[in-house]
Specification:
The complex is a heterodimer of chains A (312) and B (617). Chain A has 312 residues and is mainly beta. Chain B has three domains: 120 residues, Roll (Nuclear Transport Factor 2, Chain: A), CATH 3.10.450; 96 residues, Nuclear Transport Factor 2, Chain: A, CATH 3.10.450; 331 residues, Beta-galactosidase, Chain A, domain 5, CATH 2.70.98. Chain B is globular, with a radius of gyration of 31 Å. The termini of chain B are far apart. Classes of the chains: A mainly beta (312), B alpha+beta (617).
């Protein structure tokens, strides 16, 4: 019998390896409804902002602070409010010529980049306007199409196109998201990395519908935070050497199933402000004054979990 | 090396290769798992009217107690003795006399239904500094009540020893944890829900259901967009590792949705909401595919469109084609106002989220309003969304297929509710109907649903109007029902028939108030156009102006004045109906009132418009 010992030993070794492999693999593919612990994101703080407000404000002797209004409730396009209780408004008619905007990003020069949004009604021009990002020039205040994405195709079954943008102070680039190609079955949204000087697409990654994006430097590297349009969660995508280098990883979920994160702000050490809206890829208009919910999300490094608090 | 050693090495290498193959083929396994999850996550929407829950003893007893409470002039249903210890009992007595705690229980002299939900010793760490000082040495209690009308939770801290209310806080649009009595009622509703019984295969027993209602913190309710108090009892099926969550609306005492999920600690009721379940169910069952319906000799398919509401297609009666397609593509809503001269249209106007269009008319007044598209709840351009799935109801002499569309806040001002109805009768006749149930932005609204009806009487059809005798329309044109004084058999104003077989066709009977539904007539315009795929065969976004009463939107399809003699004809029928808010004369209107139980009830005065099609004998 002893001569068969090597065979028995190899069979036993194989059995152990098979057991470990089966266990590990099943563990790896098990679907997770719950939020994953976001270990690995690392601690972060509100870093110095490189951006400034438009220079034309000084020429017009408009005092700061200034409120950038994209709510579309009183003014189409972009409006700037200033003065006591922000009662004064700057809104030349031409700032409404490209219809409605959803998000903005400032750069070091004070230019404002704007992403479009369809709002309530579809007009003959609406779908075409969703293919562009726009720029409000810091010096002149002129509003123009900054860049056009010919591969963005809004339609009656998904009227959205370019939906969000963010400026990256580290490398003076723009991050842009579009969700036009996505449908009920699958997420086909695209995140673009743009070099604004050359108006060149540096990278585009398909497969995630980002309703909002924000680059974030943490103790463990750089990430693009993304609020999903498809679920009520915040995700992080690793950025390595300026390139999106990992699949989106879920950081946290909002308590309400129907809410989607529309804006992310860093408000302090390990603290984010998340603004949430109802969103279902329709032209659902807000029908109440309370159309946005605010959450404070704080990363607790001790317990390695996010603490969520809804603002009243 | 021995032969056995060589064999063992060969086994090891082969085994490791097989394991490597297994390890690097993860997608298939994941897909299989995903597929099984999809099957398990079945959504069930109620098909029965809420009246089925009224006979449940727990519901009856609860409603009786509320009625008696209101009759006594009280507004808060107290917790029953077995839910309270001595301190909690005393707390309840103090609070039920406290003016501040009870301040929100009346509205315009009417009592609003409130329930005390729970009273328990206060958690000192959660108190403010002043309360902490008092509550450290003394026993303090925390109490919560819920106002079913205003959707407000009130939380009070009471120093029981000194019989003093330390604080009262109100939480708008928030719902508390529920009382044990309401938990029992929720269980009873879930246990008696026909949909739950059907899913479980038999009437479940009380031991089958666990009450994992929201505990601890104020949470957003999972139904009616968090405007109602709802909970989600769960039926666990351990043998198949799945659970049925039943969402129960305790404001209206009914089941609103249910869902099978995997058993698992991460699947909690907080992740389930009526709206998201409805959206998914409607998308997967009615927006992504057609549903076939066969009944009473009728066979048809139906689906929800992106912006043209409920569409019936390929309709036949006793095997003979009747309709290729029928749908309501748009509702034009307009309001007339005086003072066109003062109208400022330099900036756009939005009303409750809709872009308002203004059209000036000659007499110094103007019309303003908007177009409402009805469509799928996701991935569409609609603003009025489906509420629940399409419903099929029995009529005395047939059946009706209908879809309810609502703005989320209906019946609040500037929120709308429409129904698309298709009535099919046992004699082969049918009716395409639109229903408006208010409420709109005012009492002077003019509604114009645009109906598109494509008959299936062969490739070649003829259209006629009755002027003492039937006269054929040779070219595309428009007619008005109110201009007609003569009707065949006093009913039929139009007819459409096959060009090759004049007996194969339908009379068209406009609504002049005769359907015994208190309707005031269609006052419609009818258009006959030659079929073109681009003219509404697919989804139409919006069609025409909301407020130009001389333009229903269909006029653009008449521009070529094409022949329709023996062509495939499409009928467009555009009723116009004025709403009425006068007391006793309400029409196309909805309102809310407080009933005898202190609860909010919606009063509805629907207006029904649309033509009936009767087979030519």
């Amino acid at each position: 019998m002893r001569k068969y010992a090597p065979i028995f030993a190899s069979l036993m070794l194989l059995a152990i390896v098979v057991a470990v492999a089966v266990y590990q693999k099943n563990k790896a593919v098990a679907p997770t409804d719950g939020e994953e612990k976001s270990a690995g994101l690392g601690v972060f703080s509100s870093s110095a902002d490189c951006t400034r407000l438009p220079q034309f404000l000084g020429r017009l002797k408009i005092p700061q602070p200034v409120l950038i209004d994209l709510s579309q409730k009183r003014f189409t396009g972009i409006a700037l409010h200033y003065g006591q209780n922000y009662e004064e408004t700057l809104h030349p008619e031409v700032w409404g010529k490209y219809e409605h905007f959803g998000t903005y990003a400032l750069n070091e020069q004070g230019d404002i980049y704007l992403s479009p949004t369809p709002f309530i009604s579809v007009r003959p021009t609406t779908f075409d306007l969703q293919k562009n990002i726009y720029k409000l020039d810091s010096k002149t205040g002129a509003l123009s199409v900054f860049m056009r994405f010919d591969d963005v195709h809004p339609s009656a079954s998904n009227p959205y196109g370019v939906i969000s943008l963010a400026y990256d102070c580290e490398d003076q680039t723009l991050w842009v998201s579009a969700i036009d190609e996505t449908d009920y079955q699958s997420a086909k949204g695209v995140i673009y990395h743009i070099a604004p000087d050359a108006k060149k697409i540096l990278q585009s990654v398909q497969g995630f519908d980002a309703l909002t994006i924000l680059p974030l430097r943490t103790g463990k590297g750089k990430f693009l935070l993304a609020g999903s349009a498809r679920d009520n969660a915040l995700y992080a995508i690793a950025i390595t050497a300026g390139v999106l280098s990992s699949p989106p990883r879920k950081l946290l979920e909002l308590p309400a199933t129907n809410e989607r994160i529309r804006k992310i702000r860093i408000t302090g050490n390990n603290q984010l402000e998340l603004q949430a809206i109802s969103f279902s890829y329709t032209l659902l208009a807000q029908s109440t004054s309370r159309d946005r919910t605010y959450y404070d999300a704080t990363w607790d490094a001790t317990s390695s979990e996010w603490k969520m608090e809804k603002r009243e | 090396m021995s032969k056995e050693a060589k064999t063992s090495i060969a086994i090891l290498v082969a085994g490791l290769l097989l394991i490597a193959l297994y390890w690097f083929a993860p997608e298939k396994t994941a897909q299989k798992k995903q597929a099984s999850i999809t099957v398990e996550e079945k959504i069930i929407l109620p098909k029965n009217a809420p009246e089925v829950y009224q006979d449940i003893p727990e519901v009856q007893s609860y409603k009786k107690d509320i009625r008696e409470m209101v009759n006594r002039g009280e507004a808060v249903l107290p917790l029953q003795g077995r839910e309270l210890d001595d301190g909690a009992q005393k707390t309840q007595e103090i609070l039920l006399k406290d003016q501040e705690f009870l301040k929100d229980t009346m509205q315009d002299g009417q009592i609003l239904h409130n329930d005390m939900m729970r009273i328990l010793p206060a958690i000192v760490s959660a108190l403010d500094a002043d309360a902490k000082q008092v509550c450290q040495p003394h026993a303090c209690y925390q109490a919560e009540k819920y106002n079913f009308v205003t959707n407000v939770t009130t939380r009070a801290i009471v120093d029981v020893r000194n019989a003093r209310v330390l604080s009262v806080q109100r939480y708008q649009n928030m719902q508390p944890d529920i009382s044990l009595r309401l938990a029992r009622i929720a269980r009873a509703i879930a246990l008696n829900a026909p949909e739950v019984k059907q899913e479980l295969g038999a009437k479940p027993s009380v031991t089958d259901v666990s009450m994992a209602n929201v505990r601890g913190a104020l949470q957003e309710s999972p139904c009616e967009n968090s405007a109602h108090l709802c909970v989600a009892p769960v039926f666990a099926d351990h043998s198949r590792e799945r659970a049925l969550w039943a969402i129960v609306d305790l404001t209206e005492l009914k089941l609103v949705a249910a869902k099978w999920t995997r058993l698992g600690k991460t699947t909690t009721p907080a992740r389930i909401s009526e709206r998201s379940l409805q959206n998914r169910y409607i998308m997967e069952n009615y927006c992504q595919k057609n549903t076939i319906l066969e009944r009473n000799g009728w066979k048809l398919s139906y689906r929800l469109t992106g912006s043209d509401g409920l569409e019936v297609i390929d309709v036949s009666y006793q095997g003979k084609p009747v309709l290729t397609s029928a749908k309501i593509v748009d509702w034009h809503v307009s309001y007339q106002q005086e003072g066109a001269g003062q109208l400022d249209t330099t900036t756009e106007t939005y009303m409750e989220g809709r872009r308002v269009e203004f059209v000036q008319v000659g007499d110094g007044s103007y019309f303003f309003g908007y177009n409402d598209a009805m469509g799928c709840p996701m991935f569409s351009t609609s603003v009025v969304l489906p509420f629940n799935a399409p419903q099929i109801r029995k009529l005395d002499n047939g059946f009706v297929l209908m879809q309810d569309y609502r703005n989320p806040k209906w019946p609040m001002a500037c929120n709308y509710r429409y129904e698309n109805r298709f009535e099919f009768y046992d004699d082969g006749s049918f009716r395409v109907a639109g229903v408006n149930i208010g409420r709109g932005c005012g009492d002077n609204a003019l509604y114009r649903p645009v109906m598109r009806i494509d008959m299936a009487l062969g490739d070649r059809e003829k259209f006629y109007t009755y002027e003492g005798e039937w006269k054929q329309w040779k070219q595309e044109r428009m007619g008005r029902t109110k201009d007609a004084s003569l009707h065949e058999e006093s009913k039929y104003l139009y007819k459409i028939a096959s060009a090759t077989d004049s007996r194969r066709g339908y009379y068209i009977e406009p609504n002049k108030g005769q359907p015994h539904d208190e309707s005031r007539g269609d006052n419609a315009r009818i258009f006959a156009t030659r079929f073109k795929p681009e003219e509404g065969d697919q989804d139409l976004l919006t069609l025409g102006s909301c407020c130009d009463l001389e333009n229903d939107g269909v006029e653009r399809y008449l521009e070529d004045n094409e022949s329709i003699d023996g062509e495939n004809i499409v009928l467009w029928y555009v009723p116009r109906v004025q709403n009425d808010a006068r007391e006793g004369h309400e029409y196309c209107w909805a309102d809310t009132a407080i009933d005898a139980s202190g609860n909010l009830v919606v009063k509805e005065w629907p207006c029904v418009v649309g033509p009936k099609f009767v087979p030519i004998k």
